[in-house]
Amino acid sequence: MARVTAATLIRAIDVTPLDIPLRAPFGISGGAPAVANNVLLTVELVDGTRGWGEAAPLPPYNGETQAAALAALGTARTGLVGRDARAWRELAGEFRARGGARCGSAQCAIETALLDALTRHDGVPLGKFFGGAGTELETDMTVTTGSVDAAAAAAREIAMRGIRTIKVKIGDRLGVAHDLARVAAIREAVPGAPLILDGNAGLSRADASGFVRGLKARSIGPALLEQWLPKDDLAGMRALGEESGWLVAADESVSSAADARRVVAAGAAGVINIKLMKAGVIEALEVVAVARAAGLGLMIGGNVESILAMTVSACFAAGLGGFRFADLDTPWFLATNPFAGGYVTDGGRISVGAVAAGHGVCPRQ
Description:
By secondary structure, this protein is of the alpha/beta class. The protein is built from 14 helices and 16 strands.
């Protein structure tokens, strides 16, 4: 057990809904939320230091809801008040055993708030805590589901922002032909942009195969095929990579280190998308270790998150180093920003170099 020091004892916990409207619905294969119904967790130490964590459940992604995150985090006071934040791993394990394992976004909020409070107390940037390998990443920006014309317009806007890589959500109810037309329109609008095509587990094997044939007929070669097939169809994912010859990423298929090991054993993917919201920081570190040992590429992503959670993920990926892909764009989709601080951007470049301690994000006064 970590050494107890009075200054890092936890004095108070606060849990509150964090509802942030989006500029437009964020469409993926499973749905299109118009509001980010998240949760803000505050941890206060006895010396007055505060740390903040965000839970960002996303029902169309994995079924988690704000109500579930609030219920899970409502138990946090009992387990955390009076304990030492330096024992954050132990405290996180206890929370997981009390139900956090059933709500990954709540687990992420607990671990993030504890680490933020601890590293702010110690005056250490969170990226340095994770290893300090670097302070910058290059993110893509997403074209959500919708019409062909809207896809082309969104792609042009992304390029005008100075963002190089475009991520395209596919797999909605309108079918493969519609998505092929959208991707072709994006390619015409921004000919040189690398494309990440994200199905959010919404395609069947037959649709995926038809999509590959359609892309090849149009001479479109994506940089990455991200989770086209249902999360348990690892054999199908492997076959998709073999048929297409393109790089395949596992997202919904990997929420834990055990999941990552199954993907490795099946030879299902060349990249794993790490999202802290899936199961928290500790489990994400384990997934990274599995991926690296197997020689798989790394991607950092997230749900529909504010600058707070996205900055944590940027600190995680930049601090660890070696992430080939980054998808940390959702703050650009939010209509308001209730926070101050966080990563800074220049086109698609994200920097956490100015963060002085913790993740550097605070609620606006």
